[in-house]
Q: What sequence folds into this?
């Protein structure tokens, strides 16, 4: 107890200091220190407050799903806490708790927490937070330099499930073969909620070359897909054993989605948030009402005015997400006609290996007749990728400086414009836009 | 002119964007009016002797490598014959390891390779991740750049030469400064990136070797490679920065 309060006190002090210094952020350091001082900091604080945790993890859709769920809880007048500023490691969760508790470690009215959790630390988070609800959104290849292979991530998740409380509710996307298999290994089958898309929402029957889970997770033989939604998400059955996608409890049949959430991937986010809300016994009318009123998170379909013209920022992190974004723009007929700026960085948060761009279907841009701009620390790699995708070299403008690229973007004709940055490129972009007073929101927005 | 390119295990062994290599070969042939046919070879698919002019195989995950190792032993004869005849073959990461004598994982039995390279690989605790720059003695310019991500340590034995000398990065095993392997016209290495697009001289070398086998000496038409070389040099600069003990933190 004394150890906990001491750690909390020191961490709160550091949190104050972080805010005084002009460093911005400060979402990780206080938590990092608290966990160093008391390794069971999270367990102690959650138990002390009888905090109900919801863990949201997976490769794509964590932030949007969490924010959707947050909006639903707000509409339902349920108080909650959320590590919303993009720090999804244990330290980010600890920092959120540090800021939300008083000096005695008490959360006053809030008994519910939404934790966005990085897929690599999910097992530790499950163990320490003992969540009441655990949601797996999907599993795609992402930052192999950091997470290792997707098989490794799946193996870690299976280990993590062993420490999930028996009373917990497990929610998975059944269209993802890896998650279907993961859920089948959990002994408490009656506490599982599955979701997926109906076959009439599919437009493809063969998976893209970037798809990952093409082999049966049970017997390693090829999977047959009758319908594909995006990447390897679809309706499938094993060519050898009995493994298949069964009927999910929650299946979306038509796509009457709000315009603030374009694209197929957002249908999954909507379903996932709905599944969690239903597990919390929230009235369906409230859920629908909240979804309509939803505002996107930063870098996820955010828009601003650049030289009076509307411009959208769409964060791209991995082949699956990038492909879905390209497909969404293509469906709107915007991909090959509107101003486009692609920004690729190779810092740790982006993934230091840029090989993944060769798994993105840039061939969609082949018929483009107007110029586009590449930028960031690996702008040249991106330009080369576009050239080999069949785009005319004279249409590719390589400008590593994001500031200059932004200026160049203003000279391209058409609206709205689109900027597709990787994670650190988005942070940099936002910093520049803020300096130029084009956007106003901050980290905590 | 026409080249048949066999792509071994395109689905199983393509985790690090290695298909970019196929795109580079295809693009650079097409630009010169050379027709290409990409033959995707999955496990169980037939691969007849003399049915291809160039062969490529990429990297995969551990689980996938198991399936590949089993299938590859059945193709041992065909691949040895192709290698002896001088058909250009490029193998990267996981396939490179299985073109050696064996791969010893952390747990479980050895995976038997097909022994084209006189080399063996042992899993190590240290994962070797980062940009890599090597110096070859058969290309102009001599540099090759890429990104490595492997835990296996590969050791070359007498009959096989390294592809190049490590300038920045880890290479085969992080110890002897060698990277990759060459025997006949069979090449192996740990370079992802994708490797071939930003190393156009190596791509052309492979195409040239394939054409020479099939049509005798052919002079390749030079292409406008401004963007390729800009990228090559930009990545060298970036590699210097990311491998520097202090600069990498900036």
A:
């Amino acid at each position: 107890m004394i150890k906990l309060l001491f750690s909390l006190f020191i961490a709160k002090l550091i949190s104050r200091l972080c805010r005084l210094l002009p460093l911005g952020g400060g979402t990780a350091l206080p938590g990092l220190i608290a966990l160093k001082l008391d390794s069971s900091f999270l367990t102690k604080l959650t138990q002390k407050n009888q905090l109900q945790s919801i863990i949201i993890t997976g490769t794509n859709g964590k932030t949007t799903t969490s924010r959707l769920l947050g909006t639903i809880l707000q509409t339902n007048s349920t108080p909650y806490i959320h590590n919303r500023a993009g720090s999804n490691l244990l330290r980010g969760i600890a920092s959120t708790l540090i800021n939300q508790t008083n000096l005695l470690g008490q959360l006053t009215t809030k008994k519910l927490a939404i934790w966005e959790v990085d897929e690599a630390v999910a097992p530790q988070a499950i163990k320490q937070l003992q969540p009441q609800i655990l949601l797996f959104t999907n599993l795609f290849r992402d930052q192999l330099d950091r997470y290792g292979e997707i098989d490794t991530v799946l193996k870690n998740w299976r280990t993590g499930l062993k420490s999930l409380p028996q009373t917990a509710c497990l929610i998975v996307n059944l269209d993802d073969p890896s998650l279907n298999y993961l859920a089948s290994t959990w002994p408490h089958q009656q506490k599982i909620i599955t979701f997926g898309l109906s076959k009439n929402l599919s437009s493809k029957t063969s998976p893209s070359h970037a798809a990952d889970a093409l082999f049966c997770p049970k017997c390693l033989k090829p999977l047959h897909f009758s319908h594909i939604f995006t990447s390897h998400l679809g309706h499938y059955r094993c060519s050898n054993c009995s493994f298949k996608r069964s009927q999910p409890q929650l299946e979306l049949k038509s796509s009457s989605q709000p315009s603030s959430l374009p694209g197929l991937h957002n249908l999954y986010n909507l379903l996932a948030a709905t599944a969690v809300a239903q597990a919390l016994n929230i009235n369906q009318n409230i859920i629908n009402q909240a979804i309509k009123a939803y505002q996107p998170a930063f870098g996820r379909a955010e828009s601003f005015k650049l030289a009076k013209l509307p411009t959208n920022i769409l964060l791209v992190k991995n082949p699956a997400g990038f492909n879905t974004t390209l497909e969404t723009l293509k469906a709107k007929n915007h991909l090959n006609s509107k101003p486009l700026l692609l920004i690729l960085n190779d810092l740790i948060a982006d993934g230091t290996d840029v090989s993944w761009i060769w798994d993105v279907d840039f061939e969609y841009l082949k018929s483009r007749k107007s110029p586009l701009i590449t930028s960031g620390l690996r702008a040249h790699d991106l330009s080369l990728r576009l050239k080999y995708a069949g785009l005319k070299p004279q249409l590719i403008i390589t400008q590593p400086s994001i500031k200059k690229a932004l200026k160049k973007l203003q000279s391209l004709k058409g609206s709205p414009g689109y900027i597709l940055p990787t994670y650190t490129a988005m942070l940099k972009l936002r910093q520049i836009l803020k300096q130029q007073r084009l956007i106003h929101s901050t980290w905590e927005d | 002119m026409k080249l048949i390119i066999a792509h071994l295990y395109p689905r199983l062994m393509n985790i690090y964007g290695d298909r970019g290599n196929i795109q580079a070969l295809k693009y650079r042939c097409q630009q010169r009016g050379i027709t290409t046919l990409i033959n995707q070879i999955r496990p169980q698919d037939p691969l007849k002797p003399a049915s291809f002019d160039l062969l490529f195989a990429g990297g995969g995950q551990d689980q996938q490598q198991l399936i590949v190792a089993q299938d590859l032993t059945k193709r041992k004869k065909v691949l040895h014959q192709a290698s002896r005849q001088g058909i250009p073959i490029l193998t990267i990461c996981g396939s490179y390891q299985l073109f050696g004598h064996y791969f010893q994982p952390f747990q479980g039995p050895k995976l038997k390779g097909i022994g084209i390279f006189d080399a063996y690989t042992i899993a190590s605790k240290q994962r070797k991740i980062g940009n890599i720059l090597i110096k070859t003695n058969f290309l102009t310019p001599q540099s090759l750049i890429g990104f490595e991500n492997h835990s296996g340590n590969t050791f070359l034995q007498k009959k096989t030469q390294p592809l190049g000398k490590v300038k920045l990065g880890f290479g085969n095993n992080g110890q002897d400064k060698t990277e990759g392997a060459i025997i006949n016209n069979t090449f192996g290495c740990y370079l992802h990136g994708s490797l071939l697009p930003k190393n156009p001289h190596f791509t052309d070398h492979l195409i040239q070797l394939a054409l020479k086998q099939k049509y005798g000496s052919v002079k390749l038409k030079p292409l406008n490679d401004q963007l390729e070389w800009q990228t090559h040099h930009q990545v060298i600069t970036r590699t210097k920065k990311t491998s520097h003990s202090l600069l990498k933190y900036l």
User: Anything to note?
Assistant: Chain B has one domain: 2-249. Residues 2-249 of chain B form a domain with the Rossmann fold fold (CATH 3.40.50.880).
